[in-house]
Amino acid sequence: MERKEFRELTSVEDARDLVESIKVQPQITVLPIEEAAGRIIAEDMLSGLDVPAFNRSVKDGYAVRAKDTYQASEPEPIELKVTGSIPAGCEDSFFVDDGEAVEISTGAPIPDGADAVVMVESTKQTGDSLLIYQPVHINENIMRAGTDIMKGERILRKNTRIGSREIGVLASIGMDKVPVKELVVGIISTGSELIRPGEELGTSKIYDANSYAISAGIEECGATPRIYGIVRDDEKLMEEALDRAIAECDIVLTSGSTSAGAGDIMYMIIEEKGETLTHGIAIKPGKPVVIGMINNVPTIGLPGNPTSALSIFNEFVAPIIYNSLGVKPSFKTKVTAIMGTGIRSGGREELFPVGVVRGKVYPADKTSGAITTLSDADGIIEIRAHTEYIEPGSEVEVTMFGNVTSPDLMLVGGQCPGVDLLEEMTGLNFRTLNMGSSAGFTAMSGGVADIACVNMVDADGNYNSSVLKRMNLEDVVLVKGYRREQGLIFSPDTHVYGLEDTINLHIINRNRGSGTRALLDREIGLLAEGKGISKTEMIKSLKGYNSGSKSHRSVCDAVKNGRVDVGFGIKAAAEEAGLEFIPLAEEEFDFVIRKDLLEIEEIQKFLAVLRSEDFSKRLPPGISTYEMTGSIISSF
Ligand SMILES: Nc1nc2c(c(=O)[nH]1)N[C@H]1C(S)=C(S)[C@@H](COP(=O)(O)OP(=O)(O)OC[C@H]3O[C@@H](n4cnc5c(N)ncnc54)[C@H](O)[C@@H]3O)O[C@H]1N2
Ligand code: MOO
């Protein structure tokens, strides 16, 4: 078979039709009630008994004959004789005659002869004499047998998804075993680069995310996942794994190896063993998906990229599972919201991950290769193939993921433990995208962020305001934050006393666009000037200058496990990692905030905490507030 070229793609509509036509017959299995949650009930459930099975009291008080109490009132209580007491669970028989009362607990059986219960609050007992201050009517405070569930009544309909409420009902009718539908969906992850979570990672390997994410998705649909683990990119091993899964499962999913790469051969194996129904759908992400059939077992090759795999699972595999189990897809909340920024698209129909913050939609797309694309998003918008641009301010419909708590504030920019502390102390839910200061400024100008966290120094040593001026950002303010000690981070056995000593050592730099990298550049420039050489020349002698670690923590990790000799970053991170630190500069870490948000409660809280003494005290070593902290600068 030739290597795949995606010249002709199946339209989304045709792919949906195809998926709708695929259905498999699930088995029925009987599970202990403790294990039945999340599954689909296989039969109508009829109650074999009345619930409650006997007339029972719903209050603590006295079982009486209602007519005896009719004359009772506050000023003129009536008197009855107490002849006994019935606790819940009591199996003895009692009888209440005219003029008598029996003490009774909530949940206890109503004695013969009685037809009402007076609450204890309306009575006063002295010895066996009971005064009743309020009348009760017949059946008051009694739950009659069968009024909750009647014997023979259908309590659950076939194909209902079993949740906590259904479990409660099943247990109340005494069921300890529940017949459920059993649809086994196998998942094979292919890729020589994959490692099982929990094992040592090594270089150029990644942890297998798809087996577990997809397995959770299968369970959410009410089917039974079976993880076959990781299979290396080896034709024979892949064939063996697929044969086994096809023999044991009702539906088989593979991940990876669907595309055009040299090692991507799963689609060929599916074609050889069975029939390819489609390979390549005009959708983004997930274009290279394969839908096939082997021995009547639907076999779907999901793309390896985690976000693509999960999106395709939701869009094209979940419907097959639901269809086969006979259930309606679980209800998805759709909300109408306003685009906070524009989104460019075009070409393929797109399932675009978005965040929703206070009714505004912003893109949450980190490409389909990133697993956090979906976990940092609140939902998706569907963008049609012919739509090229969605204008800021336009209305869109967002299909929300289940159980999302929409964040209170959206922060983009530099990463800092001080920001984590602000989140903790405000009690707000931040969505923080640690992408560096430059991304923070860009997000601000695009209207995507509420707050940009920035530490960008210019050639004159000014922080942040010059960038704002250059970008002509007018509808924002600069709120001065705190100072952070930045410097060299290294192991105790490395001898470094200043930036000069790092020449010929192996260093790790931060990502382009981060303020920390800009600061290091400035320090390198100053050092070069002092030595009378060019900055470029100086950079050449720094091994590792071109690296781009994404966070202070990952810089420390690289130093700690000996991959590099020296890193550049904040003291707080060095201390946390137990590494040595020499300060080179003290920088200003600030916040750019949208002007129109200054008065909202969330921002007011943010500012109050930033300016508080308590915040200042709790900051980690190397980060400190100063006289400018919390002051607002509105012209730059
Ligand atoms: N020349 C072309 N290259 C690619 C195309 C194309 O049309 N032409 N399509 C791209 C698209 S779109 C996608 S999606 C991917 C799909 O690739 P495969 O299905 O062949 O998947 P792999 O190459 O094996 O992996 C892709 C990516 O995902 C990582 N991965 C794989 N499995 C897992 C897993 N279980 N857990 C976490 N991450 C996983 C893998 O390491 C790769 O980085 O192809 C593009 N290329
Ligand atoms: O379709 Mo791929 O899934 O764009 O990344």
TrEMBL record:
Residues 186-323 form the MoaB/Mog domain. It comes from the Archaea. GO terms for biological process: Mo-molybdopterin cofactor biosynthetic process. Its EC number is 2.10.1.1. One of its GO terms (molecular function) is molybdopterin molybdotransferase activity. It is an enzyme of class 2 (transferase). Signal peptide: none annotated. Gene3D superfamilies: MoaB/Mog-like domain (3.40.980.10), MoeA, C-terminal, domain IV (2.40.340.10), Molybdopterin biosynthesis moea protein, domain 2 (3.90.105.10), Molybdopterin biosynthesis moea protein, domain 3 (2.170.190.11). Pathway: Cofactor biosynthesis; molybdopterin biosynthesis. InterPro entries: MoaB/Mog-like_dom_sf, MoaB/Mog_dom, MoCF_biosynth_CS, MoeA-like, MoeA_C_domain_IV, MoeA_C_domain_IV_sf, MoeA_linker/N, MoeA_linker/N_sf. The lineage of its organism: Archaea, Methanobacteriati, Methanobacteriota, Stenosarchaea group, Methanomicrobia. Keywords: Molybdenum cofactor biosynthesis, Transferase. Pfam families: MoCF_biosynth, MoeA_C, MoeA_N, PBP_like. This is Molybdopterin molybdochelatase. One of its GO terms (cellular component) is cytoplasm. PANTHER family: GEPHYRIN (PTHR10192:SF5), MOLYBDOPTERIN BIOSYNTHESIS PROTEIN (PTHR10192).
